[in-house]
Structure formats: C-alpha cells, structure tokens
Design goal:
This protein is α/β, with parallel strands linked by helices. The protein folds into 2 domains: about 120 residues, Rossmann fold; about 140 residues, Glycogen Phosphorylase B (Rossmann fold, 3-Layer(aba) Sandwich), CATH 3.40.50. It has 11 helices and 12 strands. The chain has a 6-stranded parallel sheet, sandwiched between helices. It has a 6-stranded parallel sheet with strand order 9-8-7-10-11-12, sandwiched between helices. Strand 8, helix 9 and strand 9 form a beta-alpha-beta unit.
Length: about 290
C-alpha cells in the first residue's frame, strides 16, 4: 500500500513536527510520500494512495470545494487531528464521515469524538519523544546566563511555552498566578517562551522579575531550557495533547496542570489540580461546541 501523508511543510507549526515523527515511523513498514498540504487540491496520483490528512479538519474546511475530487483519486482518507475542548460541533462530526478512520493523540480526545457522535473508528496514537529526551543532562551551551543567575541567586524557575492561542493556553492564568507567587517568593522566576515578542506581555512580566524568550528554538536549545527549569505551568484551557508537558516531564520537571484534559494520560496524579468548566465557547475554533 502507498500512503500520501499530507501535512504543512511550507511553514513550521506544531502539527508539522508531529507529522514528521509519524512519517518517520510509518516509513519503517510502508511506502510513504510526504505531500505539502498546499498541493493537495491539485495532486493527480497514478495509483490510488491512502491519504493521511494532518490536521484533518483544517484541510477539510480549506479545500471543501475540492474534497469530492480528492476522494475519487484516493483509496480513502485517514484523518489525524485533536480535540481542543470537551465537545465537537455537528459540522465537525459531519466532516468525519468522509474518512475511513480518525486518529487522535489521547484517550480524552477519543472520548470527545465518540460522545460528540463520530461514527467512524477513532484510534489513539500518542505523541512520542525522541530518545534525546531521556538522555543525561547536557553541557551548558545556550543559556549560560540563566544557569549562572539561578546558581548564584539560588532561584527556582517556572517555565511556560505559548506558541499561539494565548487564552486557550492559559496565558492570563499564568500571569495571574505569577503575580501572586511573587508577592511571597522573590526567589521564584517565570521564564516565558513566546514565538514573537509582545510588548504588552513584556510590560507585565518584566517588572515582576520574569524573563521572556522569543523565536524558534532548536531541539538542543529546548532540552537545555527544560533542564534549567523546575516547574512547568500547564494551564491550558484545552488542547489535543500538549507536547510541551510531556517534554518537560521527561526532563525531570514537575508539571502542574488541570485534572481534566488530554494530558491526564501521562501526568502523575499528584501534579493535577482540580479545575472547573469553562463557561463559554473557546474562541476561533469551529470544532468546539
């Protein structure tokens, strides 16, 4: 069987990173071609490949007018996606009817799909980590000043990643918590990793002694940053897996997170905090009801 694995190659997003790992594993057993999602509407394969669309719902909406043609040129479609909240819309459920099966990264996500009315098979394939995350701590090459400041001032570092979707990732909750912590403990410092520098966030974090990093980190840089920090703040209001939580856990950090969500598959119970239902629909997501 030939598989066309379609995902965003033209730019770097979290889905791209996970898709590359899936492709790497699939190539051990099957013939797999990597296809950029931008060319999906125009591909005309000589064979009838099995299409894996990752992320599925994004492509199903973006290429809705061409979806029937895509179906006729393939053996079938496997959708790979997540569940950002505890319910899918009817629109999202109906879109799963075009697939042979759906693949999600957590039991939480699978339960959401099934309870929302998805009739296609839903399989759980958790995100994995490279063996490098289980290796010994590395020599300090990138963040020596952070390490020296921590050692000289006997600090504890909190870590929070926010690539996008600040509200859903719990950015406001992190800032609120850090304000409260700093009232009692000046030796605790927040390190916040953003994709782009936001002056509004900087004005809040800097006066509290926090540190903001921005831009793309290499895998080696990420590993070293995790190793410098003590506690990861997993305050997400919803998410399909939250790979940063697992990465931090693998590097020996304590990860504090809500007791409901995709991360309960792998986080220890002692680090889970009682949470409450979000009283409103998550913004900018047609998947959330």
């Amino acid at each position: 069987m030939v598989i066309y694995y379609v995902y965003p190659i033209w730019h770097r997003v979290s889905f791209s990173l996970i898709a590359r790992e899936h492709v790497k594993q699939l190539k051990r057993y099957l013939k797999v071609y990597e296809i950029d999602e931008l060319v999906l509407p125009t591909i005309t394969p000589y064979t009838r490949p099995l299409l894996v669309l990752h992320p599925y719902f994004y492509m199903a909406v973006k290429y809705a007018k061409r979806f029937e043609r895509i179906l006729t040129k393939s053996r079938g479609i496997i959708g790979v996606d997540v569940a950002d909240s505890d319910r899918l819309t009817i629109q999202a459920v109906n879109m799963t009817h075009y697939t042979e099966a759906m693949i999600v990264p957590s039991n939480f996500a699978r339960d959401v799909y099934v309870k929302s009315g998805v009739k296609r098979p839903v399989y759980v394939v958790p995100h994995g980590l490279s063996e490098r995350y289980y290796s010994e701590r590395r020599t300090i090459n990138f963040f020596r000043k952070l390490w020296e400041m921590k050692r000289n001032r006997n600090l504890k570092y909190l870590l929070f990643f926010c690539w996008h979707s600040g509200e859903r990732k719990g950015l406001d909750l992190v800032l609120k918590t850090y304000r409260l912590v700093r009232e009692e403990r000046k030796d605790i410092v927040l390190i916040m990793k953003l994709m782009t520098l936001d002056p509004r966030i900087h004005k809040i974090v800097a006066p509290l002694g926090g540190i903001i990093l921005h831009g793309w980190l290499t895998e080696d840089q990420k590993l070293e940053l995790y190793d410098h920090c003590d506690i990861y703040l997993g305050f997400s209001r919803g998410g399909g897996f939250e790979l940063n939580y697992l990465e931090a856990l693998a590097r020996g950090e304590i990860v504090i997170a809500p007791n409901r969500g995709s991360w309960v598959d792998y986080l220890p119970e002692f680090s889970l905090v009682e949470c409450h239902n979000c009283p409103y629909v998550l913004k900018n997501s047609f998947l959330s009801k």
